[in-house]
């Protein structure tokens, strides 16, 4: 009876680690206090898995910040600027790399594959010196052993580690990161040897880059790395774990012929085609770790379906070599359903968070071994049936409307240049119009008002008048600054997805469904469980009120369907695009109501469109097609004179520029200032862009106030590649996290710079 968990959330059921970390960083508690919280969390996780009956329990999946940074520490690959002098890497060097310190900035952070988790990108070069400088994997193994639990230590595999790295500053672009394999493998060997000496009989190496599109050279690196490690693996069972997508056939071949490896783990949720590869050939005598329980969602597993998949795999791998597992680490799902006291019982019965998934994995393993818990399986089947037939899930009207969308393109009937002309006649904006992205600083007072209203401590009238006052303050500030297209500041919103989710049907919200995003930061995605509809207008009341306060155009502010989808836990009982189309229809209604209420400029944020891009290139076109289509659905019905804006907060979009043009928005505001003008290079290289565009002129992620000259300089650079009549001037993103003492001078300088340039045109 064999069960395995790829990895487990570190934060704790009530975000204990977050609070311990932040208190330590603030100097309010000691390193010992932090270590105590961490030790307690680890031991409770191990005990929980052990008590559930899990055979292969992971260790070293805990981290104070990030598992890739842990690997950097293990390899001693500390960039020079942190002045590390050798020896075991302590908390201070570790957190300096993660977060920067008074004198040195942090290392770069980037998204972990297509998840919302961010890792710290290793910076490597020919002069990087590697030494074994963090014994964390071994000490965690021993720590669990001391509790009587024999675990499987988990390491980020050497090839994925290098493929996820970037060349350090000053290192030539042509430098091959993979050329460092020979330097890091000796350290992996040392770690493996110590683990063996400590009693480990299994080890797990995560090599998720195997699911990406790799070239022959990269695949060859896997073969040579594992050939090199083979001797150190003797006497150990070695599991190579892959996850997040189908594994390409070539990579599957490479993986299953790696030397010294005895077990392979696959994501059978996102990698449905991988099943065919496994069925068509699986090396004899090797273990198959079948990831059938979804690590990236919150739905209870369909145990009967998983069991039948597993039965079919028994024939492939052999009964004694099949291990039931999760599709990936459970760190990408919420922690424990037990803490959800506000969700109703019916919805709760459809869900499984990490703690419940551990139990599911074990139940499946027991069932395979002939000890099926009939009561548990029956309860699961009943919950699955209730979810399939619940009237709360199905809304026939919505389904019909969404089905009717296919086959049509949903394009506005005139070209963007004709529309911009029509809009300009009405809006009469100066050249280089100025605007902001939507939110204004969210003060403590504002959060208190929202909280008290939610808790019914203040009346609706009191709430409305407080928000109204805030909007009027924000409007006045913008008029004084002489900004051209205003925003209401979004004071009524706590989060750009939650705010809409709470007003749409088909959404549920958790109290503690946190998922780690980076470091101590967690997000709490809404759960989309049913067909989505919009019973009532969501933003019209506030937008209308804001517009009535000023003669200048006031932007209506909405979150787009793709972003709502990508930042939620979505249904697994229908394709993602269907859910997206339903949300698009709901937003479409809102757009039309705003237009009818006299709002002439409507911004539909698609902050997360890029991050939903599938890992495999072969799947990009399909995703982009329905994502862009969903956006167009929201606004294809408005008049030419209504100006549709969209906003995206990332600049790395050169590869999807044609899809962005195909969204056919009238104006796009986009992050730009942190990217060394990578964005502008697209236009320099000849991509034709005829719609309005506002590449951010300063970075709102930093408290720094940009000078007038600096902004003017940026705008001039933009004018060198973009036509004067399409350029907008705006910050990179919303101002929510900034203080007024930063926002006012920064926007003052932005407007002055714009006026200065206008006089020179
Ligand atoms: N309108 C939102 C804001 O200004 C956009 C936020 C975002 O793009 N992440 O806060
Ligand atoms: Zn943004």
Automatic annotation (TrEMBL):
Keyword Metal-binding found: yes
UniProt xrefs under InterPro entries: Cbl-indep_Met_Synth_N (IPR013215), Cobalamin-indep_Met_synthase (IPR006276), Met_Synth_C/arc (IPR002629), UROD/MetE-like_sf (IPR038071)
Organism this protein belongs to: Zea mays (Maize)
Pathway terms, separated by semicolons: Amino-acid biosynthesis; L-methionine biosynthesis via de novo pathway; L-methionine from L-homocysteine (MetE route): step 1/1
Recorded name of the encoding gene: LOC541714
Cofactor(s) named in the record: Zn(2+)
Positions that bind L-methionine: 437-439, 490, 605
Binding, Zn(2+) 1: 647, 649, 671, 733
PANTHER family noted in UniProt: 5-METHYLTETRAHYDROPTEROYLTRIGLUTAMATE--HOMOCYSTEINE METHYLTRANSFERASE (PTHR30519)
Positions of the Cobalamin-independent methionine synthase MetE C-terminal/archaeal domain: 432-755
NCBIfam families: met_syn_B12ind, PRK05222.1
Sites where the protein binds 5-methyltetrahydropteroyltri-L-glutamate: 18, 116, 521-522, 567
HAMAP family attached to this UniProt entry: Meth_synth
Active site location: 701 (proton donor)
Domain Cobalamin-independent methionine synthase MetE N-terminal: 3-316
Name of the protein described by the UniProt record: 5-methyltetrahydropteroyltriglutamate--homocysteine S-methyltransferase
Entry GO MF terms: 5-methyltetrahydropteroyltriglutamate-homocysteine S-methyltransferase activity; methionine synthase activity; zinc ion binding
Tagged with keyword Zinc: yes
Assigned keywords, A-Z: Amino-acid biosynthesis, Metal-binding, Methionine biosynthesis, Methyltransferase, Transferase, Zinc
UniProt remark on cofactor binding: Binds 2 Zn(2+) ions per subunit.
CDD domains reported for this sequence: CIMS_C_terminal_like, CIMS_N_terminal_like
């Amino acid at each position: 009876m064999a069960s395995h968990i790829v990895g487990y959330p570190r934060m704790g059921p009530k975000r204990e680690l977050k609070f311990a970390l932040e208190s330590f960083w603030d100097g309010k508690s000691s390193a010992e206090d932090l270590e105590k919280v961490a030790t307690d969390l680890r031991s409770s996780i191990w005990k929980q898995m052990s008590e559930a009956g899990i055979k292969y329990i992971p260790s070293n999946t805990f981290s104070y910040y990030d598992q890739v940074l842990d690997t950097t520490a293990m390899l001693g690959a500390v960039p020079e600027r942190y002045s590390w002098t050798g020896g075991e890497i302590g908390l201070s060097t570790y957190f300096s790399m993660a977060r920067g310190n008074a004198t040195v900035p942090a290392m770069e952070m980037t998204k972990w594959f297509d998840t919302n988790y961010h890792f710290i990108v290793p910076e490597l070069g020919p002069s990087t010196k590697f030494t074994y400088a963090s014994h964390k994997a071994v000490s965690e193994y021993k720590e669990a052993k001391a509790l009587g639990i024999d675990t499987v230590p988990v390491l980020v595999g050497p090839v994925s580690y290098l493929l996820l790295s970037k060349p350090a500053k000053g290192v030539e672009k042509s430098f091959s990161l993979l050329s460092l394999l020979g330097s890091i493998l000796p350290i992996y060997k040392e770690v493996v040897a110590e683990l063996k000496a400590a009693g480990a009989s299994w080890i797990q190496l995560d090599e998720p880059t195997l699911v990406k599109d790799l070239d022959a050279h990269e695949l060859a690196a896997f073969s040579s790395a594992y050939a090199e490690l083979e001797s150190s693996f003797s006497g150990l069972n070695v599991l190579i774990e892959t996850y997040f997508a189908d594994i390409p056939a070539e990579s599957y071949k490479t993986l299953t012929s790696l030397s010294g490896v005895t077990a392979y783990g696959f994501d059978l949720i996102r990698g449905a085609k991988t099943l065919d590869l496994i069925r068509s050939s699986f090396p004899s005598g090797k273990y198959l770790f079948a990831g059938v329980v979804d690590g990236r969602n919150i739905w209870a597993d369909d145990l009967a379906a998983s069991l039948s998949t597993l039965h079919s795999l028994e024939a492939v791998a052999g009964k004694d070599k099949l291990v039931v597992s999760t599709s990936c680490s459970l760190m990408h799902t919420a922690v424990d359903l037990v803490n959800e006291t506000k969700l109703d019982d019916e919805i709760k019965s459809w869900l499984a968070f990490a703690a419940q998934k551990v139990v599911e994995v074990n139940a499946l393993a027991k069932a395979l071994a002939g000890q099926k818990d009939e009561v548990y399986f029956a309860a699961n089947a009943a919950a699955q049936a209730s979810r399939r037939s619940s009237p709360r899930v199905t809304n026939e009207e919505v389904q019909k409307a969404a089905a009717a969308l296919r086959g049509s393109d949903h394009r506005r009937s005139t070209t963007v240049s004709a529309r911009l002309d029509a809009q300009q006649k009405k809006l009469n904006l100066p050249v280089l119009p100025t605007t902001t992205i939507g939110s204004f600083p969210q003060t403590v007072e504002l959060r208190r008002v929202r909280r008290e209203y939610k808790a019914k401590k203040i009346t609706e009238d009191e709430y409305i008048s407080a928000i109204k006052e805030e909007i009027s303050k924000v409007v006045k500030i913008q008029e004084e600054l002489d900004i051209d297209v205003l925003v209401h500041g979004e004071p009524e919103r706590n989060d750009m997805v939650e705010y809409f989710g709470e007003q749409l049907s088909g959404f549920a919200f958790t109290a503690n469904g946190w998922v780690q995003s980076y470091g101590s930061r967690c997000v709490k995605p809404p759960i989309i469980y049913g067909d989505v509809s919009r019973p009532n207008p969501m933003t019209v009341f506030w937008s209308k009120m804001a517009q009535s306060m000023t003669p200048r155009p006031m932007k209506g502010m909405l979150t787009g369907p793709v972003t709502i989808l990508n930042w939620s836990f979505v249904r697994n009982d229908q394709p993602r695009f269907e859910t997206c189309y339903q949300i698009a229809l709901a937003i479409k209604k809102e757009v039309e109501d705003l237009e009818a209420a006299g709002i002439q400029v409507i911004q539909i944020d698609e902050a997360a469109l890029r991050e939903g891009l599938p890992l495999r290139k072969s799947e990009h076109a399909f995703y982009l097609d329905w994502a862009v289509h969903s956006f167009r659905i929201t606004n294809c019905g408005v008049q030419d004179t209504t100006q549709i804006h969209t906003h995206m907060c990332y600049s790395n979009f050169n590869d999807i520029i044609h899809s962005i043009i195909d969204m056919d928005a009238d104006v796009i505001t986009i992050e730009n200032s942190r990217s060394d003008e990578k964005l502008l290079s697209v236009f320099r290289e000849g991509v034709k862009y005829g719609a309005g565009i506002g590449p951010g002129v300063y970075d709102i992620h930093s408290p720094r106030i940009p000078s007038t000259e600096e902004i003017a300089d940026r705008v001039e650079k933009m004018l060198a590649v973009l036509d004067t009549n399409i350029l907008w001037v705006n910050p990179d993103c919303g101002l929510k996290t900034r203080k007024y003492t930063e926002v006012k001078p920064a926007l003052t300088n932005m407007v002055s710079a714009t006026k200065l340039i206008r006089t020179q045109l």
